[in-house]
Amino acid sequence: LREKLGLGGDAEWEDELIGEWDEEAAAAKAAAAEEEGIEEDVDEEASKAAVLKALEEYYKLDYEQDIGGLKCRFNYREVDKEDFGLKPEEVLSMEDKELNDLVGMRLLAPYREDGWRLKKQRFKVAAALGPKRRAQAELAVWHDKRKEAKRERQKEKKAAAREGGVKKAETGVPVAGKKVKVT
């Protein structure tokens, strides 16, 4: 580069630094080394095969993401489903503190290889979720459903009040202080 600009310099060193490389330059370098009596133990075919294999592996990766401005590719790791004996309703109804007490995040680290710790934790969760705990979780789910039903009834009341205070006769639910007769 410096030589091209007329500043002088070592073109070979700059090409190596920049990464410019082609087959002609490699052949010329090998011929020069052969003339000097130096034999290089470089197998071109093997190095090209290694590069192609690395590129193939790179493009097989599942996911690409920008991390700190750099594009990174990585494989997702296959893991077994682990519910620790909890039902989805129980997980959703419990507080974060309760869930962390039962199953700490340190045990759920995706890079951890210690499967035996997870098995021990599963037994701990099963013991902690005795009949009393399960009843509490089910009660919390029941309360959530009841609150949702109450909200729906309130929405219906407001809609009926806007329509003139009369509701469909088949429900028999008092609306806006009036009772509707079911016939």
Q: Would you give an account of this structure?
A:
This is Kri1-like C-terminal domain-containing protein. InterPro entries: Kri1, Kri1-like_C. Belongs to the KRI1 family. The radius of gyration is 36 Å and the shape is elongated. Among the domains are: about 40 residues, no CATH class; about 35 residues, no CATH class; about 45 residues, no CATH class. The relative contact order is 0.05. Helix content is about 55%, strand content about 5%. A hairpin with a 2-residue loop joins strand 1 and strand 2. The chain has eight helices and two strands; from the N terminus they run ααααββαααα. The protein is mainly α. A two-stranded antiparallel ribbon has the order 1-2.
Write a brief caption for the model:
InterPro entries: Kri1, Kri1-like_C. The chain is mainly alpha-helical and 183 residues long.
Topology:
Elements: H1 2-5, H2 11-18, H3 23-36, H4 44-60, E1 63-67, E2 70-74, H5 88-93, H6 96-102, H7 115-128, H8 131-162
Antiparallel strand pairs: 1-2
Descriptive keywords:
two-stranded antiparallel ribbon, mainly alpha, 183 residues, 8 helices
The arrangement of helices and strands along the chain is: HHHHEEHHHH
- Total of helices: 8
Would you count the extended β strands for me?
Answer: 2
Strand order of the largest sheet: 1-2
Low-confidence stretches: 17-21
Structural class of the secondary structure composition? mainly alpha
Rounded average pLDDT: 68
Oligomer: single chain
Radius of gyration: 36 Å
Shape: elongated
Q: How many angstroms separate the termini?
A: 97 Å
**What proportion strand?**
5-15%
Question: Helix coverage percent of residues?
Answer: 55-70%
Major sheet size, sense and barrel closure:
2 strands, antiparallel
